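Entry type: protein chain
Record version: 2
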Amino acid sequence: MAFFGKPDAPASSPSPSPHSPSPPPERVPTPSAPTPSGAATSFSPSTASTVIGSKVRLVGDVSGDEDVLINGRVEGKIRVDRKVVVSHGAEVEGDVQAKSVIIGGRVHGQVLASERAELLPSGRVQGNVHAPRIVMAEGAQIQGRVVMPNDAAAKPLSGSRSEEAPKRPLAPPKSEDAVRPPASPGSGG
């Protein structure tokens, strides 16, 4: 006898009952593109904490402390303390700031990565890319500046250290000795 829809003994072939929920659909991981070192970028919906689906349009800012996988469209700033992946076919209208940024879709804004930025072959950025390490696959496009700060430039200067730094003029001082007409080919001196 079944009690609350549960069978008394396990059946040889399970058949879904009309009252039981159907199993969740299987997620197909997004294909990972090979990096120049030959290793694959391993980031799929199963490892992402937050997934914005391919049929989702999000208007507003996104911020948090977990990995974000964007398969749809985001219209707003993204500021995450971990990794952001803009997959192939996804689009972001706004700045993206994270520890690591991987772009396979389109970003219309600034990209600021504190550790690493990677552009896959299908990646497109209209804006500046700031990161200490940048990996750009053949076929990726950037319409903007690429800024790779070194360690000294990335660290803010303390008040006492900036005062001790020598001040250099922006242009060398002009003097009459510094400006000489070019020597004519026939002159001996």
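Comment: Residues 50-152 form one domain.
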